[in-house]
Amino acid sequence: MNKFKHVCVLKGGWSSEREVSLVSGDAIAKGLRDAGYEVTEIDVQPDIYEVLKKLSPQAVFNGLHGTWGEDGCMQGVLETLKIPYTHSGVKSSALAMDKILSKKLFQSIGIPCAPDMVVKTNDLFSKEPMPRPFVVKPYNDGSSVGVVIVTDGDEFNQDMDGPWHDTENLMVEKYIPGRELTVSVLGDKALCVTELKPKAGFYDYKAKYQDGMTDHILPADLTPSQEENLKDMAEKAHEILGCRGVSRSDFRMDGEDIYILETNTQPGMTPLSLLPEQVLHMGISFSELVHRMMEDASCER
Predict the structure, then answer these.
(1) Is 27 in contact with 280 (CB distance < 8 Å)?
(2) Are both 53 and 141 inside the same structural domain?
(3) How far is C-alpha 183 from the chain's CA centre?
(4) Residue 135 CA: distances (Å) to CA of 95, 97, 129, 149, 172
(5) d(CA 244, CA 267)
(6) Which residues of 128-145 are buried (b: 16+ CB within 10 A; e: fewer)?
(7) What is the largest CA-CA distance in the chain?
(8) pLDDT score at 211
(9) Is 161 helix (H, G, I), strand (E, B) or coil?
(10) Is residue 167 located within the same domain as residue 186?
(11) Of 235, 188, 196, 190, nearest to 218 (Cα)?
């Protein structure tokens, strides 16, 4: 029997990841209905506090991605309303979304990270911030939104498309060549490792969410020690951030050297998303996944 009967699924919102969240939310709602819940879907707008207060659900499945939904803001709204919700709480969500702070935490427990620096947008093009190749990205967004890789011979100026048009401060990070790997954590246990092989360029927003753009190698071709090392890092990242429910950590592997890129507290739940794929590989259906996440919903206070 389900602990909660009437639940709301939050989706959409107004971040740069709105379209992905709408697809995730649709899948989540179907999975919850299949698991026997009464579900109300909400395309989140700035009046979400009043909407939730009126609907008074027993719990909320947070299917939002990006700023406002994944960075502690929506979690704070739900805490204020005392409505149990899925995924991580306010502090964990905020820490994970802030790539600068989360990397400091990772380094404090011995998880290797690529060298980085914070650069004011106005200073970015006056002098190259570090030797090429390097990566320029927002330090508080997800799904590889706005990420630009600058390699030898690339044009690099302020007239190009890039995150420097939208924010005052940027994160510049040494580019790590090699393999792209990802590990999901459910509860406090790492599931398995997927290798991502984009068919063109790197694993950016388009490669993540357009069918056929990336090959998912599951399980990744790794030695037992490499696999265990990656899973151990993902579990430690989940723990140091204080994550709850699920997370997914992304890595680069250059030879035997492994570097964590970031931890996502609200991984995508679309048909192309990595968490549902890994869970299914472990013998858990999508409906069972969302049921387990829903039953784990809670408030921090």
Answers:
(1) no
(2) no
(3) 11
(4) 21, 17, 10, 4, 6
(5) 12
(6) ebbeeebbbbbbbbbbbb
(7) 62
(8) 57
(9) coil
(10) no
(11) 196
Please list the alpha-helical segments (H only) found in 35-113. 48-55, 73-81, 90-97, 99-108
Q: Among candidates 6, 165, 178, 171, which has minimal Cα distance to 83? A: 6
Structural domain for 169, as ranges: 116-174
Contact 52, 61 (CB under 8 A): no
Mean pLDDT of 126-136: 93
Based on the domain organization, do 104 and 193 belong to the same domain?
A: yes
Give the Cβ contact number of residue 152 at 10 Å. 7
Q: What would the two tokens of residue 11 be?
A: 């989706």
Name residue 198's beta-bridge partners. 214
pLDDT category of residue 145 using cuts at 50, 70 and 90 = low
- Do residues 139 and 268 share a domain? no
Task: Report the C-alpha gap between 275 and 268 in whole angstroms.
Answer: 7
Confidence of residue 166 (pLDDT cuts 50, 70, 90): confident
Give the model's pLDDT for residue 172.
Answer: 95
Question: Known catalytic residues?
Answer: 17, 143, 209, 248, 250, 262, 264, 268
- Strand 38-43 to 6-11 pairing: parallel
Q: Retrieve residue 264's tokens.
A: 């996502």
Least confident of 8-17, 135-144, 163-172, 212-221: 135-144
pLDDT of residue 138: 84
Across 276-297, average pLDDT? 96
101 plus 207 within the same structural domain: yes
